[in-house]
Amino acid sequence: NAGVTQTPKFQVLKTGQSMTLQCAQDMNHEYMSWYRQDPGMGLRLIHYSVGAGITDQGEVPNGYNVSRSTTEDFPLRLLSAAPSQTSVYFCASSYSSRHEQYFGPGTRLTVT
Amino acid sequence: QQQVKQSPQSLIVQKGGISIINCAYENTAFDYFPWYQQFPGKGPALLIAIRPDVSEKKEGRFTISFNKSAKQFSLHIMDSQPGDSATYFCAASSGQGAQKLVFGQGTRLTINP
Q1: Which residues, at least 6 apart from A46, have a Cβ–Cβ distance to it below 8 Å?
Q2: Which residue in the set A31, A40, A106 is minimally distant from B99, CB to CB?
Q3: pLDDT tens-digit series, residues A21-58
């Protein structure tokens, strides 16, 4: 099992550009989520999904879109990148929010 | 708003000592309280978790203490080792309503040899 994979590992964007962070898992988990990690702020939930076709907002959803067309994939789209979105992004999957979350290796995004 | 508050932000402990990290929560519907450990450049990984039907859970040198009335829980690391140096996050979620797992701000733990 590859577990949770994320691509790319690093990305530099200019303000206003858009991009998609990819996340995939091969554990047949229903629950997937996206977090951003900033110094002193912990891990803040951006969006999450409890199954294919179902998504919901977390604490900091503004500027991000998600979709869940398959159980395996949960991409995160930045519509118009802003410097405030400079962060490390983690994708995670699990059976539910009340089971062990398996995290991917993260994507370090810099917006200039 | 921060639903889970964690302290301290950073902690330095001598090798062999006890490391204690505290968390407090507001939502009484929370019924699952995990702790995650993160090493630099890696994603967090589950360390230990507790549900509110018990007041304490121990796994090796790691213990969670849970106080439901005070809405607080803590992580104790006994006989702390340099390899325990990492960032630790507490978290909480509820089986009711929105299925969100919310994290505390994190504690950077350094164990001096």
Answers
A1: A33, A34, A35, A36, A58, A59, A60, A61, A64, A66, A76, A89
A2: A31
A3: 999 999 999 999 999 999 888 899 999 999 999 999 99
Cβ within 8 Å, pair B103-A106: no
User: In sequence order, what are the beta bridge partners of B75?
Assistant: B21, B64
**Cα B97 from Cα B100, distance rounded (Å):** 9
A31 to B9: CB separation less than 8 angstroms, yes or no:
no
Distance from CA of A81 to the nearest CA of B (A): 23
Q: Whose CA is closest to B20, among B70, B67, B80, B94?
A: B80
Distance from the Cα of B91 to chain A's closest Cα (Å) equals: 9
For the stretch A60-69, pLDDT in tens is 999 999 999 9
